[in-house]
């Protein structure tokens, strides 16, 4: 597994992504050309989409968020989309999940909040300064940063020791799907809700090889598929063999859908 260059050696996050993508492309070509099964760490950043039915399973939402932020790799939770209709009800569970994730790492989670949800963030968090662990050391930053450009939803936070996430409001799951297909790295997403038909719609509509309804960190060839990963970044090259696929050691591409069967319905 290769690692991202330390942030201190790069001028910006976009520069880091460009350098790292070239590394992944090169190693991916070598691995795929030789047929040697190797583990490649691709650029990514997972997306979490809340269904309006997520209000029925706040503990599940909280737990999935916490367990998706234990460390920074390509399948770490990066972007959270919340329907407006449930925002005031479910936001406390989302923030609690982020808090526990930070507590587990002896830090706090830095939040990038779109202007649509920024007014709903607790005042104490919006005015608070926090210590953020960067490659160059501890940096004092705002706990919650506001942004207004949806293109930033696709920016992968290459954090060192302080988790970072982006949060925005959407009208509904349909808008979340559209934003994912426009701005995401086309890698992994989780839909948190209880509606099976909605889960089917998301799977059919997203340009994503890995779709689930639990935590995002299950997306690992050796964990989920019990086989070495071969070019985990290959989805970035578009639809292969007619599917938005990831090479996982076989000669065919595949999509993977994971359904959590133990979703708690009560609080």
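Q: What amino acid sequence fits the structure above?
A:
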């Amino acid at each position: 597994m290769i690692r991202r260059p330390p942030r201190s050696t790069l001028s910006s996050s976009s520069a880091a992504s460009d350098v790292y993508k070239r590394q992944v492309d090169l190693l991916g070509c070598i691995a795929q050309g030789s047929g040697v099964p190797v583990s490649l760490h691709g650029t990514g950043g997972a997306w979490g989409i809340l269904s309006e039915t997520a209000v029925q399973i706040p503990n599940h939402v909280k737990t999935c968020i916490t367990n998706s932020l234990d460390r920074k790799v390509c399948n770490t939770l990066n972007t959270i989309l919340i329907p407006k209709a449930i925002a005031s009800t479910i936001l406390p569970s989302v923030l609690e999940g982020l808090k526990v994730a930070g507590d587990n790492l002896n830090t706090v989670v830095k939040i990038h909040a779109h202007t649509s949800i920024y007014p709903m963030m607790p005042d104490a968090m919006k005015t608070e300064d926090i210590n953020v662990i960067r490659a160059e050391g501890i940096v004092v930053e705002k706990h919650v940063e506001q942004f207004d450009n949806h293109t930033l939803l696709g920016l992968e936070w290459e954090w060192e020791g302080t988790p970072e996430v982006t949060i925005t409001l959407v009208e509904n799951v349909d808008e979340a799907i559209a934003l994912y297909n426009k701005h995401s790295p086309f890698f992994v997403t989780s839909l948190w809700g209880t509606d099976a038909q909605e889960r089917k719609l998301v799977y059919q509509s997203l340009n994503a090889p890995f779709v689930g309804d639990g935590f995002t960190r299950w997306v690992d060839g050796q964990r989920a598929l019990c086989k070495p990963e071969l070019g985990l970044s290959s989805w970035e090259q578009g639809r292969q063999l007619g599917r938005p696929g990831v090479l996982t050691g076989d000669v065919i591409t595949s999509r993977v859908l994971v359904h959590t069967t133990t979703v708690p319905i009560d609080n």
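Q: And what stands out in the fold?
A: The first strand starts at residue 46 and ends at 50.
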